[in-house]
Write a structure and sequence with these properties.
Length: about 325
């Protein structure tokens, strides 16, 4: 047994990597207030385009997302009526823009300008968005720091105990070509109904490839299913000051959309199974790892490679 203490971020700790900031159904027309840890942000929707900015008025600190109104490329502050430019930081009264990516129903954000904090995510999500249909599945508050949500993909033992996966094989961890953290293996289960329609007594002979790639302490993309018909689960967690907000998005090929209702239901059910543990977990307890925790330790070391995000400017 290995007793080891790994870093545990404060509930509102923000790192430099990518976050799954919001789902489309959270974003209204015009201005939508958002939070990323202790930072106040606004999303501004213009037709199909969504941009994200700091929400703090540079004059006296009012939140531009509550009572602010759009006026071209400015927001009229609800406190003193000043015109605050969106992203044009050369102007005296302005708020900086946050780097974002919009893929299907998911809006991603990154606070850091350090190219090393991308870890290949931008390329990966653009490719996925061009090939898959994405739909939202989960949007829930969770009582643990955000890293625990993403860590689940690297906790090989919990799949059998929490999610009752009959057999978990392989689960090898490595670094990807862009320094993302990768774990891959295989699940053996009964075939899902869309793979064996009408078959009542399915045996445990369905091999589901499992490949998860963490691009930051708060974001992981997981590929499951067969090589011929894979599907993608994007799981993100955003610190909210007390725990985090977990979001899950499911992506399938356009010819596999019939499987989406079952996949969304499964994602919701799996998330609720995890919450039973998360909502009662003592995050300050000693971490006594053993040989089965190699991939969890690797994930925690991966998290340590991200510096805290600096101030927006």
């Amino acid at each position: 047994m290995i007793e080891q203490t790994t870093s545990r971020s404060a509930p509102d700790q923000l790192h430099g990597g990518w976050f799954l900031l919001a789902l489309d159904d959270e974003l209204g027309p015009g201005i939508t207030p958002l939070k990323l840890g202790a930072r106040n942000l606004i999303a501004v929707r213009d037709d199909d385009r969504v941009r994200v900015f700091s929400a703090t008025c540079p004059h006296r600190g009012a939140h531009l997302g509550y009572g602010g109104t759009l006026d071209g490329q400015c927001v009229i502050c609800p406190f003193h009526g000043k015109r605050i430019a969106l992203g044009d930081t050369a102007r005296r009264w302005s708020v900086p823009e946050v780097r974002t990516l919009h893929a299907g129903s998911a809006l991603f954000a990154r606070l850091s300008d350090d190219p090393g904090d991308d870890r290949g995510f931008e390329q990966a999500i653009k490719q996925a968005a061009g090939e898959l249909t994405f739909v939202p599945a989960v949007h829930q508050e969770v009582a643990v720091p955000a890293e625990y949500v993403v860590e689940n993909a690297f906790d090989a033992e919990h799949f059998s105990t929490v999610h009752l996966v009959p057999a978990v094989k392989g689960m090898r961890v490595s670094m990807g070509v862009h320094d993302e953290l990768v774990i891959e293996g295989e699940f053996r289960t009964k075939a899902p109904p869309w793979e064996r329609p009408g078959e009542k007594d399915r045996q445990l002979n369905f091999a589901s490839r499992f490949v998860a790639r963490a691009y930051s302490p708060h974001l992981v993309l997981t590929e499951l299913g067969t090589a011929e018909a894979p599907y993608t689960i994007i799981t993100g967690a955003v610190p909210d000051g007390t725990g985090c907000v977990g979001r899950v998005v499911i992506g399938v090929r356009p010819d596999r959309t019939a499987s989406l209702p079952a996949l969304v239901h499964g994602a919701k059910y799996a998330f609720q199974q995890d919450r039973v543990v998360w909502d009662h977990l003592d995050v300050h307890a000693p971490q006594r790892y053993d040989a089965a925790d190699t991939s969890v330790i690797a994930f925690r070391r991966f998290c340590d490679g991200f510096a805290p995000a600096g101030a927006l400017s």
